[in-house]
Structures are given as structure tokens and as C-alpha cells.
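The following record pairs a protein chain with its ligand, 2-keto-D-gluconic acid.
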Amino acid sequence: MKNILIAGNLPQDCLQLMSQHFTLFRLDVAEDKSAFLAEHAAQIDGVSGGSVDADLMDKLPNLKIIANFGVGYDNIDVEAAKTRNIVVTNTPNRLNAAVAELALGLMIALARRIPKNHEMVRNGHWPSVKRAPLTGQLAGAKLGILGLGRIGKAIAKRAVVCDMEISYFGRTDQQNDYRYFDDLTAMAHYVDWLVIIAPGGEGTEKLVNAEVIEALGPDGHLVNIARGSIVDEPAMIAALEQGKLGGAALDVFENEPHMPDTLRNLPNVVLSPHAGSATHVTRRQMGAQVVDNLVAFFDTGKALDPVM
Ligand code: 8YV
């Protein structure tokens, strides 16, 4: 049996499935991580769970594959893996629906004040408020998608059903039914909603900066279901405080699970704990996909979902 180092948190069902094919070395729960690595490093064939940097790769002389639990792999130093001939895999596709569903859910929650109305009713304030406050709506509004990849398309499909007009910004014009922008600020000016679903890491850091946020404007809404690193968070908070940005629905944060108190206390935000793929079905499928990649790689020499 090949030996897999569990470097960070993985769901129980994924660990269970993995243990049917491999011997697991649980660095994630080891008390003395350096001692654990010193003892087992030479035996390790693959890694899964958590972040993997060049330093960890260098401690594992026989490492051949890093199977990431997640479609985003900004937690893995892919360049370092490439130079060491280590294969990196991710979990594309199986989470598209769950992430898209939460994106739409957050948009509807923000547009229709669902969390605030819930609090109002629950706290017994409805009799004094009498009528529900009027809100915006998705129908008839313009949506701009930053990153029209697999999940971006799943979001667009659902937003079309909500009668939204779709635009997108990305590196290439995909020649489809949606309006393409090669300039993010121009798209932010045009749309009412900006949904971020681009990969994190180098190249997208603080892509949504003060200029883009202000272009979205006082009636604009920002939704981040991708990575906190893509937004200039202080600029977004300042714009929300000053009424230069209408609202934000956020599933991801720069320093999650932490965030500035100002952000937690703003009235015009809906906050979510990085839950895009967090459904029973999706997480189970992602776990199986991680194991399928490891099994395929060690059986055939070819992984199913290599990222490079
Ligand atoms: C996380 C995600 O990976 O797939 C992604 O890129 O952001 C999520 O599915 C998941 O939360 C892993 O803990």
C-alpha cells in the first residue's frame, strides 16, 4: 500500500474511503509535527489535506502527488511542485452546482433583505414596522461575472432563470450569449451586481480594487464566493461605510475565519462562513474525487484532474 500524508483537515468520509486504498499518516492530528515528519517523511508517496508549500515538499523525498480537496489550489505551491515533478490534482466540476446555488442564495438574501427581515420578525418588531420595507430585486438587474469558468457558467445559468442580464469579464471573449468586457472597471460601471468567481492566487490579487468598487457604485452589489484575496477588503469596507458601494454578500474573506469588526457590524452586508461547496452531497463527492485521483495516479501513472 502507498502512504498518504494527511497534512490538514479532510472530511471523515474522505479519510475513511482513502484508508481503504492507502495507509494514512495523520500529520493533521500529530502533536509534535516535526517529530512526526522526521519519523515518517521518507515513506510518504502522496499528500492530501491542508496547505502544501515548498518547505514541506522538500521534507518528503519520495513525494509524487498532492491531491487537493477543493477546486481552488492557491493553498498549494504549484510552481514548486512542478519543478520537483510532483503532480497536483484538484476537484473540479462536482462542486459547481453547490457553489452556484449559494451565490444565488446570497444575492437573493442581500437583494430582498432576508436576514434583516428574519431578525425583525423574530425580534417581534413586525407589529411596529407594520409593512415590510421595500427592497431591490434580481429580476431586470444586470449581473457581471468575474471569471466565467465552470462555476461562473453555473451561476450565469441560474441568474438567467431569475431574469438577469449577464455580462462577464475574463481573459478571453468566449463568444457566447453573454456580454463580454475586457475591462473590469467598465463592466463594474455597467452592472448592478458583480459576482467574483475567479481563482485566487497570483494574478487575481486585489483585482477588485477601490476603482472597481467605486465603479460598481452606491446602488451596486458585490458578491464574493471565490477567494478573499481577490478583493481589496479595506477599500470595500470603506466604500460600504461611506455609501459608495450599496451592499456586499461575502462567503470568503482576506483573513478568514477572521474579519474586521467593522465588516461584521455593517448593515448592508450578508456574511457566510466559506460554505460554497459545503453540502453533504458535494463534499462527499469531492472526497471521492480526491481518492479517485490518488488511486488512478498510483494504478496508471495518470491522475484524473491534474492542474498542470
Ligand atoms: C474549499 C473551495 O476547498 O473548492 C474550493 O476551492 O473553496 C472549497 O470547496 C473547501 O472548503 C475545502 O476546505
